[in-house]
Amino acid sequence: MNVIQELHQFEDGLRPPQPSVAHAWDGEKWVPDASKVALMEQLNIERLCARVDAAADYARNALAGDPLKAMEYAQAAAEAQAYIDEGYPKKAVPLSVSAWVVKGRTARQAVDQIIAKAARFKEGLLTLRTLRLKAKEQIKVHIAKGKTDLANQVSEDAIAAIRAVANDLAG
Fold first, then answer.
1. How far apart are CA 105 and CA 127, in angstroms?
2. Which of 12, 35, 152, 157 is most buried, judging by how many CB atoms fall within 10 Å of its CB?
């Protein structure tokens, strides 16, 4: 009995196993198929970038919550800034500011807190955006250079950084 290891039966005979789905048989050996390689690279880019986008989406949703709540906060921040710009007039406190004038808080303290929270939120969103876009670009570069391991590491590092930013802002 002859045992032939590492050969596979195909319709036209025995041959070594296909190294990857991106390889085609040229009649003598397996060779990379440029169109399949490009497709695999694109699919890998899309998969890794989608993971980074999903982490950023989750973080933004956790920070902002309900979109209407985010709009409410943005409106309060805009009204608070207008109130500051007008010089904190005592007889013209915006409703969104006066709603936060509770528990001994003055209108000025309420405005300062609203503006500070809005600034932290805006900074957090910009940090998330920067992390997300930088990672996606690095993933594309690494995949184009055939450095899939580095692309995977960039994706994992970006997701960890995004989660850290979200935790810092939530806490």
1. 31
2. 152
User: What pTM did the predictor assign?
Assistant: 0.75
Count of CB atoms situated within 10 Å of the CB of 10: 10
**132, 53 contact by CB (below 8 A):** yes
Over its C-alpha atoms, the chain yields an Rg (Å, rounded) of 28
What pLDDT score was predicted for residue 171? Answer: 66
Sequence-separated (6 or more) residues with CB below 8 Å from residue 128? 56, 59, 60, 162, 165, 166
d(C-alpha 50, C-alpha 155), whole Å: 10
Separation of alpha carbons 7 and 69, rounded Å: 62
Buried b (16+ CB within 10 A) or exposed e, 93-103: bbebbeebeee
- The CB-side HSE value for 79 (13 A sphere, CA atoms) comes to 18
> What is the C-alpha separation between 76 and 72, in angstroms, rounded?
6
Q: Check pLDDT > 60 for residue 6.
A: yes
Name the residue type at position 87: G
